[in-house]
Amino acid sequence: SSHSLCQPETEEMFHRGPGLNLTSGQYTAPLAGFYTFSTTLHIARREPRRKRQGCRGSRVRVLICVQSCCQHNSRLESVSQLESSGDPFTISVTGTLYLQAGQYASVFVDNTAGSPLTVQSGSDFSAVLLGV
Fold first, then answer.
1. Is the distance from CB of 30 to CB of 101 less than 8 angstroms?
2. What are the residues facing 96 on neighbouring strands?
3. Per-residue pLDDT of the chain (132 residues; tens, 9 = 90+)
4. pTM to 2 decimals?
5. Domains annotated on the chain, with CATH
6. Can you give the three-state secondary structure of 34-97, one letter per residue?
7. Which of 49, 33, 51 is nearest to 127 (CA)?
8. For this UniProt entry, what is the primary localization, expressed as one broad class (predicted)?
C-alpha cells in the first residue's frame, strides 16, 4: 500500500474532535480558549413565483452564537440582502470567539424575508481551537 506524504504521522495531529454534535448542530468546546468558527450556508427560498415581487429590503442574517445567546459580544454575524430573483444564494460567516470549557456555539438563521428558507446540502460549520 502506498503511503501518502500528506498523511499525519500520528493520530493527534488532526482529528475530527468529539465537540460537534450533528443532531443538535452545536459545537461544544472541550477546553477554554479562542476558537475560529466558520460556516457557509447554501440557502434556497421556497415561495410561489407570484409573491416574488415586492418585499424589497428583505434580508437574511446568519449568526454563530455562544450558548444560543446572540448578544453583540458573543456572536459572529453576516447579513445578506435578498435578490428578487429568488435564486439560491450563499452566506459565509468566519471569526473568532472565546468559549469556556463546556460552552457551545451554534449557527442561527434570522429570516426577515417573509418566505420559507431551506438550508441546502453542501453547507458546512467548523470550529478550530486557536489557543488557550
1. yes
2. 36
3. 444 445 444 444 444 567 777 677 889 999 999 999 999 999 988 765 555 555 556 888 999 999 998 887 889 999 988 777 778 889 999 999 999 999 999 999 988 877 788 899 889 999 999 988
4. 0.76
5. 20-47+55-131 (2.60.120.40)
6. EEEEEEEEEEEECCCHHHHCCCCCCEEEEEEEECCECCHHHEEEEEEECCCCCCCEEEEEEEEE
7. 33
8. secreted
